[in-house]
Amino acid sequence: IFPPNSGNKEITWMMLEAGAETDVVNSVGRTAAQMAAFVGQHDCVTVINNFFPRERLDYYTKPQGLDKEPKLPVKLAGPLHKIITTTNMHPVKIVLLVKENPLLAEVEALQKCYRVLDLICEKCMKQKDMNEVLAMKMHYISCIFQKCIMFLKEREDKLDGFIKSLLKGREKDGFPVYQEKLIRESIRKFPYCEATLLQQLVRSIAPVEI
């Protein structure tokens, strides 16, 4: 466990990369993230909650079991890890991260990436210490990747068209309807109906009209 109370995001990140355990509790039964939240260091909480060790992703770059090929080409691990660990979850930001990397901005590459994200999501839900937040994040990014594939296949303006659709506001008040529908659709498609986080999201969103 490590002290997050200083509020230094960079040191928190360095310690995580060096192998600091996030689920260890202190003498009063609090994890590092809980201590950071308790003293108001919410940036550190965000860093801890969004951390995903590179080794866990690299696992998919090696053939497993009877597989002859790895599920994720080594060249995609770095760009995908950058997106997985981003703390800015705005769909436009994620699409821009895809767009800025030529290796990632291809249909075949995105297909491999979203399938790996789905596997990580499943593992997060089925492991002993279930991580619903990380599972939901992986599922959400997977949904955005699948929409990227659709635009790459069907639209001449490709990812630029996707970004325009996400940013376009309706005439009467500028509200980005397409963006809202995408986020709601990703929540609706989350495959683990029993998840507490999913039920909380549905309860808070369902009564609100677009």
Summarize this, please?
This protein has 210 residues and is an all-alpha fold. The protein is built from eleven helices and no strands. The longest helix is centred in the last third of the chain and has 23 residues, at 132-154.
Could you report the average pLDDT, rounded to the nearest whole number?
Answer: 90
Structural class: mainly alpha
- Tell me roughly what share of residues is in helical segments: 55-70%
- Number of helical elements: 11
| Tally of discrete structural domains | 2
Number of strands: 0
Biggest sheet record: none
Shape: globular
Radius of gyration in whole Å, from Cα?
18 Å
SSE string, helix = H, strand = E? HHHHHHHHHHH
Protein name: ANKY2 protein
Organism: Brachypteracias leptosomus
